[in-house]
Write a structure and sequence with these properties.
The structure holds two protein chains of two kinds. By secondary structure, chain A is mostly beta strands. Chain A has strands spanning 5-7, 10-13, 19-24, 31-38, 42-50, 53-57, 64-68, 74-78, 87-94, 103-104, 108-112. Chain A is globular and about 35 Å long. By secondary structure, chain B is mostly beta strands. The radius of gyration of chain B is 14 Å and the shape is globular. Chain B has strands at residues 3-5, 9-13, 18-25, 29-37, 44-49, 53-57, 60-65, 70-75, 84-92, 98-101, 105-110. The chains are: A mainly beta, B mainly beta. The interface between A and B is medium-sized, with 27 and 25 residues.
Chain lengths: 113, 111
């Protein structure tokens, strides 16, 4: 079974621009969560989707948004990029509605200049 | 709010046993999970405790005590490849699925 895939793997953007990151979960997994990882803050929960519905959201500004499609693939969007948005963005999928075991993708390394 | 605390670094010798502690301030969570992350890699799931007590998976064991708001990951027969960051995480009961991670413990295994 293929693992979680994320595209692109690396991205360089300028302040003020927007970016869209994509995540394809493991086949059959319906829950997708997004995390921001930075050296100083560790893994910070962004949001979680299940069956195209956002069920939970972390403490991030409204510039961060996401969605999930009917095939469980998910995208997250960050608008009006700031330097502090530079981070590794990780997507994780889970098979069930409340599964504790998450499978992470390799992440997208976003650099904002 | 919810928070988890772990030591930032732990150093141990190859072949030894090491324990990584995790204390938390949260309630209403499904259980405590542990993840391993090598430099440049993605976190990978190691273990989960839904109930108090010890769970064993090969060289790794994990423990949870809800009454003490405490858990730990125990790594036995340490190998060089165990050098990595280890994160504890709680899955919150919010009507959905929300996971809060600790800041991570960097484990250095020396020969």
């Amino acid at each position: 079974k293929a693992g979680v895939t994320q595209t692109p793997r690396y991205l360089i953007k300028t302040r003020g621009q927007q970016v869209t990151l994509s995540c394809s979960p493991i086949s059959g997994h319906r829950s997708v969560s997004w995390y921001q990882q930075t050296p100083g803050q560790g893994l910070q929960f962004l949001f979680e989707y299940f069956s195209e519905t956002q069920r939970n959201k972390g403490n991030f500004p409204g510039r961060f948004s996401g969605r999930q499609f009917s095939n469980s693939r998910s995208e997250m969007n960050v608008s009006t990029l700031e330097l502090g948005d530079s981070a590794l963005y990780l997507c994780a999928s889970s098979p069930g509605q409340s599964s504790y075991e998450q499978y992470f993708g390799p992440g997208t390394r976003l650099t904002v200049t | 709010g919810q928070s988890l605390e772990q030591p930032s670094e732990v150093t141990a010798v190859e072949g030894a046993i090491v324990q990584i502690n995790c204390t938390y301030q949260t309630s209403g969570f499904y259980g405590l999970s542990w993840y391993q992350q090598h430099d440049g890699g993605a976190p990978t799931f190691l273990s989960y405790n839904a109930l108090d007590g010890l769970e064993e998976t090969g060289r790794f064991s994990s423990f949870l005590s809800r009454s003490d708001s405490y858990g730990y990951l125990l790594l036995q027969e340490l190998q060089m490849k165990d050098s990595a960051s280890y994160f504890c995480a709680v899955s919150l009961d919010t009507g959905g699925f929300k996971t809060i991670f600790g800041a991570g413990t960097r484990l250095f295994v020396k020969a």
